[in-house]
Write a sequence for this structure.
């Protein structure tokens, strides 16, 4: 039971890291940051 749980956690971690690497290699991080800045500016009333 414990081994299965550890394997599931390891697989989930590897999938998450793969997704992060894939998104970063495509330049998605700058898009997300730009959207976050726009949302924050609208929330505090500067946009």
């Amino acid at each position: 039971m414990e081994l299965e749980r550890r394997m599931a956690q390891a697989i989930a971690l590897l999938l998450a890291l793969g997704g992060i690497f894939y998104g970063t290699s495509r330049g998605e991080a700058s898009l997300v940051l730009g959207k976050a800045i726009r949302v924050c500016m609208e929330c505090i009333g500067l946009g």
Q: What stands out?
A: The two ends are 53 Å apart (CA to CA). The chain has a mean pLDDT of 91. Helices lie at 2-25, 28-43.
